[in-house]
Write a structure and sequence with these properties.
This is PEGA domain-containing protein. This protein has two domains: about 200 residues, no CATH class; about 80 residues. About 25% of the residues lie in helices and about 30% in strands. It contains seven helices and 16 strands. Helix 5 packs antiparallel against helix 6.
């Protein structure tokens, strides 16, 4: 991927007073998108994004593809993208430096994602859930710029990210890597037609090996209450309760793993990760 210039700046960030969480409804398809949120109808033309703000609490959504569902928005969430078509989006990262000599100060962590059966390797993340929490600086409608005004680390630059629609990511990847036609030549039509399924927050979490399970009660209770927390005060209370429960669980199970199988430890890690993701999400689709 290309390495670009970064310019230093100083800024003052002003916090807003509203608890509302900002989302962008995006339609990357070739047809209009019809969506209903809390009884308000939205018609999003092909290739268009529409910004909305949602207050913390219980909300409803309906569309032809999703059917009817309920979701909770949480105070303090970062917001992000609403993806009613469950399309593929890719978050890519670029390193920006004050001069080319600083590139050596930045390593790169590569991963491989798959789009329609075609692998892509780079500093990439694949997302296709209904709510995609914001981790990017540049949204779908804004390309990576040639220059960025932003914070310069002690390494002489910084790393910024952008979220791409699938087709626009493919174009970016092929141009950046001088690989014209890479995607079209390998695209698997069967993989492209695979149905997309809405991912909801699990109603119940699987049981663990008893050595772990006996310490999970407070975390399970916090998780169950998170799926019912429509009031801001309750959401705030649960964040503290989660911190306390997680600390207690970590302390109680610190030496458990060495005595158990790899499968048992993987299950325990997945349990903790699932709860952490739920507690950190801006919105959850209810079971």
């Amino acid at each position: 991927m290309k390495k670009l210039l970064l310019c230093l700046f100083t800024s003052l960030l002003l916090a807003g007073c509203s608890d509302a969480v900002t989302y962008t409804i995006d339609n990357p398809t070739s047809t209009n998108l019809e969506l209903d949120i809390d009884g308000t109808a939205y018609l999003i033309p092909s290739g268009v994004s529409y910004e909305i703000s949602l207050e913390p609490g219980l909300h409803s959504m309906r569309s032809e593809q999703l059917g009817e569902l309920q979701f909770i928005v949480y105070k303090g969430g970062v917001g992000g993208l609403i993806n009613p078509t469950l399309s593929d989006y890719v978050i890519a990262r670029e390193t920006y430096v004050t001069d080319e000599s600083k590139l050596k100060n930045f390593g790169s962590i590569h991963s491989t994602i798959v789009l329609d059966g075609v692998p892509f390797t780079g500093s990439l993340e694949l997302r296709n859930q209904l709510f995609i929490d914001k981790t990017w600086r540049f949204p779908v409608q804004e390309p990576f710029p040639e220059e960025v005004t932003g914070h310069v680390t002690e390494h002489g630059g910084n790393i910024f990210s952008k979220i791409f629609r699938r087709d626009e990511f493919v174009e970016y990847f092929e141009q950046s890597n001088e690989m014209p036609g890479y995607f079209a030549a390998q695209r698997d039509e069967e993989a492209a037609r695979a149905p997309r399924h809405l991912v909801r927050a699990p109603k119940e979490l699987p049981r663990l090996e008893e050595a772990y399970e006996q310490h999970t009660g407070p975390l399970r209770e916090v998780y169950a209450q998170r799926l019912k927390a429509t009031e801001v005060s309750e959401q705030e209370r649960l964040q503290k309760a989660y911190f306390d429960a997680q600390m207690a669980y970590t302390k109680a199970t610190a030496t458990v793993g060495s005595k158990l199988s790899t499968e048992a430890n993987i299950a325990a890690n997945n349990f903790v990760s699932t709860i952490a993701a739920a507690m950190g999400s801006s919105a959850l689709v209810l079971p």
